[in-house]
Amino acid sequence: MFKITPNPPEPDDVSPYESTDPKKLNNAADRALDYYLKPVIPKDTPRKPSTIYFVGPDTDNETLLVNACESLASASVMLSDFAGQLNGTQRHTLLGIQHSVMLGELAVNRMLDNVDPHG
Q1: Is 7 part of a structural domain of the chain?
Q2: Phi-psi category of residue 112: left, alpha or beta, with phi > 0 → left and psi -120 to 50 → alpha
Q3: Does residue 102 lie in a domain region?
Q4: Does 27 map to a domain?
Q5: What share of the chain is helix, strand, coil (3-state, %, to 5)?
Q6: Share above pLDDT 90 across residues of the chain, in percent, rounded to a whole number
Q7: Which of 16, 39, 65, 90 could cross-link with 86 by S-S, CB 3.0 to 4.6 Å?
Q8: What is the mean pLDDT of residues 81-103?
Q9: Could you tell me where the DSSP H helices lie in 42-87?
Q10: Band of pLDDT at residue 78, cut at 50, 70 and 90
Q11: What is the pLDDT, as a whole number, of residue 55?
Q12: CA distance linking residue 61 with residue 114, whole number of Å
């Protein structure tokens, strides 16, 4: 029987690329992704810290330690109160975090004693 439509053309067996080395293809893909998705961070730009929470460079060590100690003490109390409302493993996890905060508070208190041994 005779076919009315023509057969599609035969595809060329020759690729425009000499080889399809997976490593070269991967490197090319990485370069393309970096070009389009990776942000450009100039290396000569100095880091500018955020000033939303700013501690003045002239703040003395004792003031910084007192503030850190009060913050840790507050966090320890909040964690302890919250742990009282929980049961099981969640309570144990929160008490472990509270314990770590308490140890930090003790270390800061010791440092404060070293800064002002007569106080």
Answers
A1: no
A2: alpha
A3: yes
A4: no
A5: 55, 0, 45
A6: 40
A7: 90
A8: 94
A9: 61-83
A10: very high
A11: 83
A12: 11
